[in-house]
Amino acid sequence: MCTKPPLNKSSPVHWILDWDGTITKKDTLDALVNISAATKPSFPTLDHWNNVSKAYMDDYTATLAQLAPNGTLPSTVSAEKQLLAQMRAVEQRSLDRVSSSGIFAGLTKDAIDAGAKQAVHSRAVELRTGFEGFFRHIQHDRKEDGFMLLSVNWSRIFIQSCLGAADIVDVPTSSIMANELDNIEVGKPSTGRIISTTHDDVGIIMSSGDKLEKMKHTQLKGQTVYVGDSWTDIECLLAADLGICIRDEPMGSSQRKLAESLTRLGVSCLHLSDYKEADEWGVVWARDFAEIQDWIASKST
Fold first, then answer.
1. Rounded CA gap, 252 and 259, in Å?
2. Which pLDDT tens digit goes with each residue over 78-134?
3. Residue 285 pairs with which residues in a beta bridge?
4. Domain formed by 13-297, architecture
């Protein structure tokens, strides 16, 4: 494997960002579920959500224990990718449960848009420190740079509405690679089924491997920087010219799992300021987007 050259910040960069826990301070699926619950108060949405969530965790734990007996997780990147590919079945079963539960049945685009605005204004959904400034810097000071969101989230309309409510209105739907509830984008009430929004061979984005395939399908030219926070980001982080892990202090559970995986695989993860000393995988960490903006705005390449 070739060692990646250090990123040249003075050249155009294509930024690929995860949504939940990366752009936002925490996962936003609860907020999306609460929007649906508010639209049909007589339906036991939250009970169904709790059942679906518990079934997912039970399935996840049991499947991981079967694939990695006694906690013997991989020590190589290729074996890690194989494990992640096998774990995709857990995500598929969970999506099937969500779709059949009726949690999102009857939800409309207008309800998602209004609910997203309320979630942002009430801080149920919060953007990470410095994201607005980072995005403005990319849009206005680095106009040759590209920008894309890549997420396993179930509604890109929800993501776009959240961004709009936070006064970030320049992100077209085509720049958000995420899933959607069926019928939402054509203005009809959803049946609650989760579908793909892109016409390619990847389909619904559920896993780390799906995200990597989506990234490959975009046929990006030039340098790529991927920013993520969890295990489902690991393959994109390793494949990009530079991967940036978002880390709180102390780290949250998803961040910690990603950090432990990188350590287990022998991937060094220095702070962003030391990116030139990163190993051949080119993965670093940053606290927030204010740090990332300061880094790209600094004169040193």
1. 10
2. 999 999 999 999 999 999 999 999 999 999 999 999 999 999 999 999 999 999 999
3. 245, 271
4. 3-Layer(aba) Sandwich (3.40)
